[in-house]
Amino acid sequence: MACLMGMSGGAFAQQASPQTSPGHQLPSPDAVALRTEEAIVVDAVFDEKSWSLAHPVTDFIQRDPKEGAPASERTEVRILFNARTLYLGIKCYDSNPAGIVATELRRDGEMEGDDIFEVIFDTFHDHRNGYRFRVNPLGTQRDQSVSGEGQSVNDNWDEKWDSKARITSEGWVAEIAIPFKSMRFAGRGGSVWGMNLHRTIIRKNEDVFWSGYNRGYTLTKISGSGHLEGLSGIRGFRFRVKPYIAAKTIRSPGTGEKSTHTRGEIGVEDAKYLIRPQLTLDAAVNPDFAQADVDQALVNLSRFSLFFPEKREFFQEGSGIFQFGTGNRFGAVTDLLLFHSRRVGISADREEIPILGGVKLTGTQGPLEVGLLNMQTDREEANAGQNFTVLRLKSNVLARSYVGAILTRNTGSPLGGSNRALGLDSIFNFFRYLNLQGFLAKTFSTGLDNKDWAGKAAVRWANDRTVFSFERLQIDENFRPEMGFVRRAQPRWKGLQQTQAEAGYKPRPKMPWVRQFGVSGKLDYLANREGLLETRDGKITLTGDFKSGDILTTTFGPRFESLVNPFRIGGGGGTVSAGDYRFNEFSMKYTAHRGRRIAGTLEFSKGGFFDGAITGFDISPAVKPNARLSLAPSFRWNRIARQNSTFITRELNTQVNYSLSRKWLTRTTLAWNSQNKETLVNFRLNYIFRPGDDLFFVYSESHNYGEANGLINRAFIVKLTYSLDL
Q1: Exposed, middle or buried: residue 531 (CB in 10 Å: 0-12, 13-18, 19+)?
Q2: What is the tens place of the pLDDT at every residue in 370-419?
Q3: How confident is the model at residue 198 (pLDDT cuts 50, 70, 90)?
Q4: Is residue 719 in some structural domain?
Q5: Residue 116 falls within a domain, yes or no?
Q6: What is the DSSP string of 304-342?
Q7: What is the rounded average pLDDT of the residues 310-319?
Q8: Which domain range does residue 112 map to?
Q9: CATH for 91
Q10: Assigned domain for 349 exists
């Protein structure tokens, strides 16, 4: 299969350059983009003369199944540009075109089960941050922004770009046009960008890369990229305004006599101004997020808070700059964030609070990354509106490391007074796989003057064969980041001191049906600040990654929990008395090859649960009967048997996506769990009448089947956005 992509420049060097990306084992390849003044029509035909003048990028190398071997199918990429747009022409040759898999028409769909081609651009050439663009043989698009070498990947980042693709007798081809205004970059003069290219041939379970093909890398590990040269005289936008108009009919029976309200709204969803090409000022006036995806309905059998990710558009650009704390790195649990944007305009029980407006400044200034956010919310019942401010600075040091600081301030807090937080952090990357990180933070809350610190130190080594990590986290009892998230914080808690250690070995035996085995051990030891042990969780994990693409994971180990206070289980589970509890846990999870029409996961778990036992079953299939229809039902069932009672919890989260075309998309979401006895149905029809602008029809209805009246809320919303670039 061959991939053809357009870039700027004159001559193209296919041989390895003497330049080497930080942490990259082999010299990084170079490509040069060809400048054209010819009008390029994005139609996946390549009949413009400029395509024949651009030199193809062809040297793709396997990461899997045979690391370092040439790609089994040919890929060609040609690159063109003019002052405003970067063009990529992709030809993916395939010896068996009938075997090409293309099942996703929905924009921003995962496409994990499809043949794909994707590119990532490191526009500042800082070996840390970038923009990722993916297409499949149907021309379906997915984009992401990447920060900190993949430590923060923003799936909700969306920008304006165009693509077309088609399957041919020789494979499949795609043509991509990315306006320079969709990305931030260092300047208009000549510049070098980092770039990497990746193709997946799904039926062969094969991944090939242009650069950084070593298994210790992923595409988001940007330091493994090659170089794109020749870009000059390019222009982004200076100003963009995206107003919206919406009409809403909302019925809430529990709000009083007038339970049905119809109103119109108008505002500015986002206005962007480029102070410099690499520094962006965003503003929002009366923003509306009615079209944002709804949260999952999760059963919480722990005594701690659940973490829900940010999904609103305004908070997406530059979100990686504001990252401070644990989680969102290496797949870790989010235990602490000093700033979590969901605190702005969303209450503790996940109800929307109107936002009057706000501003955000994000970007770079030399080696310094800057993030500044100020938002003002409206009054909420008896509480005055809140003002949220966060300032984040990160200074790049060495090749792939940084030191940073953050300051947050919240006034008008429902807890009274104001709340501030101050933190210092750093991440250092050495050699190819060694990562060192740490932070120190302090909060300032009205009435709490002492014991208000938190800190962390961690070391991690991870490559394809071995994993080792050690982490120490401490949080004082009066540490209260009201603009952030602390998972274990609860009334009368005494802080924590947590130690985590992990070691793993993942050989690749020469067996006909096995790609990789893995065995790892992990210990999580958590005590309060007085030294009293609260949790000790040990796990042994065995993983089999098969050449069929299927994965089988088995986890088992002992657990200890000490409850200082009684723990009430939601959903009628009763109360667990204070005391010490020792029990074992076991789980087995099967993940089907992503390229099948029916894929997904199946998990069985069994073990102790404080003074009883728990049996769990989780099925999350991904079903794609055809390119227009995809179903993602997820059902979790738990049976908990305690000394004097037995109860069952159920959790259902289902998405049904039907695409009339790439422009007309529907999504239906059903969320229900037996713990809070609530059911939510959300239907969204999205017409993308031009890239970046949409017409939405949203219907949402929630019920509490444990109440007599049943209906909690019913809403019908029509919303139109229309952006203007200057």
Answers
A1: exposed
A2: 999 999 998 876 667 889 999 999 998 887 889 999 999 998 776 667 89
A3: very high
A4: no
A5: yes
A6: S--------GGGTTTGGGG--BSSSSTT----EES--GG
A7: 75
A8: 30-231
A9: 2.60.40.1190
A10: no
